[in-house]
Amino acid sequence: MSAYFAVAESSALGRRPLGVVLEDRRIALARDEGGAAFALPDLCPHRGAPLSRGSVIRGRLRCPYHGIAFDGAGRGHAPPWMEGPCTLRTEPLAVHEAMGLVFVAREPSAPLPPRLASDGWQPFGLAIDIDAPAVEVVENFMDSTHTGVVHAGLIRTGDAGQLREVTIEADERTVEVRHAAVDEELPLVRRWLGPGAIDHVDICHLPGTVEVRYAVGGEPFFHVLVFVTPRSATRSSVFVRGAVRSPRARALDRFAAAGAALVGRRILAQDKAILEATEDAVRRAGSRPLAYQRAEAMHPMVRRLLRGEGRVESARVRVRL
User: Which residues contact 120 (CB under 8 A, 6 or more apart)?
Assistant: First the structure.
């Protein structure tokens, strides 16, 4: 866990502790007296009770079994029945709170997650759980070629589109997929966007964040961060933070954000359905085919990155979308 993972919506963490799971490890979240979130293993070092089932007293997480309370640094504080200081300690996790999400990492020096565009942008947020491994979920969100099939009518038409030049650049921490700008027919959206060719960039960041950027005529108008969190080997949570900004019709940005959220929910539901159907087929078959085609050169790079084997490499392909 040498990176920050999104584990909960900030709004879910209030006056009571919250239990979450990351890579099969249970974590207890709470807020101190100043409102800052902190994270501890969800296992009291005294007798093993789940701290997430306790309470928060004066900014400390109190165990539901014997009442020993732990502060954000993991120091135990004696309950009324104990004389003298408490010697119990537990190892806290690093916490970073941003964009309405709570992130945790093993070390506070871990690289922070990418930030969503904010100045003058209209935000929206979504979340969903998917019964599929995180690597499959991340790869899905980096995959443009499935959109005309799974999301026909929402993202693509489903028919053969325009031939696009795609440049892929990878290093030890990212895989960037850049689609050459094309002038697309978008009748309902053009009043908001204005004229110009649309370019599209997808970036996969460690430990499993997909960043999507769109611009028209060189002006950014759509920015999304998809945080994929491995709850277990077979289950993932997806937290989406997005923002829109029109280059010419800012008064419509609020409606555009609401529309993006509505379409986004449909897209996430469709992705969940195809990913879970795929996992069911893979389980029944007992094997996972990975027969990538030449135009899918980015996918092996993404899988290497998520295994911690990212390296400097590049490719150029042509895709019809």
Answer: 245, 250
Instruction: Look at strands 101-105 and 69-70 and give their pairing.
Output: unpaired
Number of domains in the chain: 2
Residues 60 and 137 in one domain: no
- Structural domain containing residue 287: 122-320
Which of 201, 247, 246 is closest to 224 using CA atoms? 201
| 207 and 289 inside one domain | yes
Residue 45, Ramachandran bin (φ over 0: left; ψ between -120 and 50: alpha; else beta): alpha
Would 114 be classed as within a structural domain? Answer: no
**Tens-digit pLDDT profile for residues 274-291:** 999 999 999 999 999 999
pLDDT in tens, 5-29: 999 999 999 989 999 999 999 999 9
CATH number at residue 91: 2.102.10.10
87 vs 27: CA distance, rounded Å: 21
- Are residues 25 and 137 located together in one domain of the fold? no
CB 213 within 8 A of CB 200: yes
Q: Are 267 and 275 in contact (CB under 8 A)?
A: no
**Hey, CA dihedral for 78, 81, 82, 87, is it positive or negative?**
negative
